[in-house]
């Protein structure tokens, strides 16, 4: 798709973000008039781009707190060769991604991003609070180039590790942990939810693609009363969501096919909040209480129940974790 003049100007400013770029240079490099440069700058500002201008000096890009596909692509240093779809509001990025996949053949990672979700959801269809500006909500369609059935238990654990590794770059002082199987925790509260779904190719009886949905509480300060005791945010200050998204997208797309590499599971175990603690696991109508002993090689969770019996679960949800004798809901 051909780039607009505004996009071309933005990329020039991003490429020289540490310095000023004169209008004459922009006009010369892009072979357009000074008036076209001025119009492009105004159009970019209307899109949320903060661009400083100084007489006889030129223009300088400062920031954009809105989600912008051109900036996200630029920040990946062109390492991401897939497709980005950015919307201000959707029902759920996961629903949008799956609807897209049902009508398109996807051969490269494709990402759906929203500033706000009106019906965001996680496992078991549970609502995920998704306010505008202060969170990050995206779903990635990841094609499966093989006919091999995935080791489902390892996919979400690996995605959690990949995501947390990126978060540690942005929040180096925070101790992110994993709550089996699909949540990232901070200070014993949820900050990230991950939902991994496989889409089947019925003709070949194989997995055509994975759709991984990620919801993050970055700087949200007010949560609904029914979840406020269970969730938290990573910071009280806005951060560069475009840069964070670019790092997450390129990391996941570069490594998802290696999801069964043992190094990811070992990292997951090292920071698993449930291990050695009493947990409550909900499996359908059954509630299992015991001490989490191990996360197995296939990602399953082994629990030692009160009668000393070891039970291993490949599905279910840990709904409570006992931290030093204090029972908290997960």
From TrEMBL:
<dbReference type="GO" id="GO:0009249">
    <property type="term" value="P:protein lipoylation"/>
</dbReference>
<dbReference type="InterPro" id="IPR030855">
    <property type="entry name" value="Bifunct_BirA"/>
</dbReference>
<dbReference type="InterPro" id="IPR008988">
    <property type="entry name" value="Transcriptional_repressor_C"/>
</dbReference>
<dbReference type="InterPro" id="IPR003142">
    <property type="entry name" value="BPL_C"/>
</dbReference>
<keyword id="KW-0436">Ligase</keyword>
<dbReference type="GO" id="GO:0005737">
    <property type="term" value="C:cytoplasm"/>
</dbReference>
<feature type="binding site">
    <location>
        <position position="190"/>
    </location>
    <ligand>
        <name>biotin</name>
    </ligand>
</feature>
<dbReference type="Pfam" id="PF02237">
    <property type="entry name" value="BPL_C"/>
</dbReference>
<dbReference type="InterPro" id="IPR013196">
    <property type="entry name" value="HTH_11"/>
</dbReference>
<dbReference type="GO" id="GO:0016740">
    <property type="term" value="F:transferase activity"/>
</dbReference>
<comment type="function">
    <text>Acts both as a biotin--[acetyl-CoA-carboxylase] ligase and a repressor.</text>
</comment>
<dbReference type="GO" id="GO:0006355">
    <property type="term" value="P:regulation of DNA-templated transcription"/>
</dbReference>
<keyword id="KW-0067">ATP-binding</keyword>
<dbReference type="Pfam" id="PF08279">
    <property type="entry name" value="HTH_11"/>
</dbReference>
<dbReference type="GO" id="GO:0003677">
    <property type="term" value="F:DNA binding"/>
</dbReference>
<dbReference type="GO" id="GO:0005524">
    <property type="term" value="F:ATP binding"/>
</dbReference>
<comment type="similarity">
    <text>Belongs to the biotin--protein ligase family.</text>
</comment>
<dbReference type="Pfam" id="PF03099">
    <property type="entry name" value="BPL_LplA_LipB"/>
</dbReference>
<keyword id="KW-0092">Biotin</keyword>
<dbReference type="InterPro" id="IPR004408">
    <property type="entry name" value="Biotin_CoA_COase_ligase"/>
</dbReference>
<keyword id="KW-0678">Repressor</keyword>
<feature type="binding site">
    <location>
        <position position="117"/>
    </location>
    <ligand>
        <name>biotin</name>
    </ligand>
</feature>
<keyword id="KW-0547">Nucleotide-binding</keyword>
<keyword id="KW-0804">Transcription</keyword>
<dbReference type="InterPro" id="IPR004143">
    <property type="entry name" value="BPL_LPL_catalytic"/>
</dbReference>
<feature type="domain" description="BPL/LPL catalytic">
    <location>
        <begin position="66"/>
        <end position="260"/>
    </location>
</feature>
<keyword id="KW-0805">Transcription regulation</keyword>
<dbReference type="InterPro" id="IPR036390">
    <property type="entry name" value="WH_DNA-bd_sf"/>
</dbReference>
<dbReference type="GO" id="GO:0004077">
    <property type="term" value="F:biotin--[biotin carboxyl-carrier protein] ligase activity"/>
</dbReference>
<protein>
    <recommendedName>
        <fullName>Bifunctional ligase/repressor BirA</fullName>
        <ecNumber>6.3.4.15</ecNumber>
    </recommendedName>
</protein>
<feature type="DNA-binding region" description="H-T-H motif">
    <location>
        <begin position="23"/>
        <end position="42"/>
    </location>
</feature>
<dbReference type="InterPro" id="IPR036388">
    <property type="entry name" value="WH-like_DNA-bd_sf"/>
</dbReference>
<dbReference type="InterPro" id="IPR045864">
    <property type="entry name" value="aa-tRNA-synth_II/BPL/LPL"/>
</dbReference>
<keyword id="KW-0238">DNA-binding</keyword>
